[in-house]
Amino acid sequence: MFDVLPSIVTALTGSLAAPTLPAFSTAFLAGMALSLSLIMAIGPQNAHLLRMGLSRQHLWLTVVVCVIADMALIAVGVIGLGQLGQLSDRLYGALLGATVLVLLIYGWQAARRFWEGFWRGFKVPAQEVDRANQTVSRRQAVTAALTFSWLNPHAWIDTAVLIGGASLAYQADARTGFGVGAMVGSLIWFVAFGALAWWMGKRLGQTSIWRWMDGLVAIMMWAIAATIALDVVS
């Protein structure tokens, strides 16, 4: 699979490779574009960040931790996995299987919260409101962000494996530019998404709105899981 990644990236970003742009700049733009395209899906990491924004607790600390964790995965991919060129089919299949399992579990948890709210007419009991408003410590916020970033197989596949494999399209300094561009793309996304979550938290302070977000997250998680599973089967 990874043998074709460089050619795909080159074809998709060939329009950026104008003679007036240095190789570093071209690779930088390609890395940023690929990073943004991979990270925009509502995965467990983004869903957690959104919930932190709605609850207005340690949002920007969570953003910082997510950015640092994502940059670390990108560095592992470009410097480590990217140098290897490809993973064995068995290891790659194991990562995909673990990803499907994590997405199904996370989607089921979100769907359960949605259905519980649905059967109550989205009227949230007082004790649940109190639980949602419980203060989260900084250590808990950091631990949760790292868990969703580093213990999520989907993040490893998208951030480390795919970006690392795509970096093989470039040589020396250009590969560094690709990695830096991917990191900048991650920074742009998390800061922008954090700002959106903060804005939504100020205007959508009702706990019941979380139920609709849970329904959306469940659909997205299961859709991604189904897509990956179909890709494995085919």
TrEMBL record:
Q: Which UniProt keywords apply?
A: Cell membrane, Membrane, Transmembrane, Transmembrane helix
Q: Which residues cross the membrane?
A: 27-47, 59-79, 91-111, 178-200, 212-230
Entries under InterPro entries matching the protein: LeuE-type
Q: Where in the cell is it found?
A: Cell membrane
Q: How does it sit in the membrane?
A: Multi-pass membrane protein
Q: Any keyword Cell membrane?
A: yes
Q: Which Pfam families match?
A: LysE
**Has keyword Cell membrane?**
yes
According to UniProt, the name of this protein is LysE family transporter
Native species: Orrella daihaiensis
Q: What is the lineage of its organism?
A: Bacteria, Pseudomonadati, Pseudomonadota, Betaproteobacteria, Burkholderiales
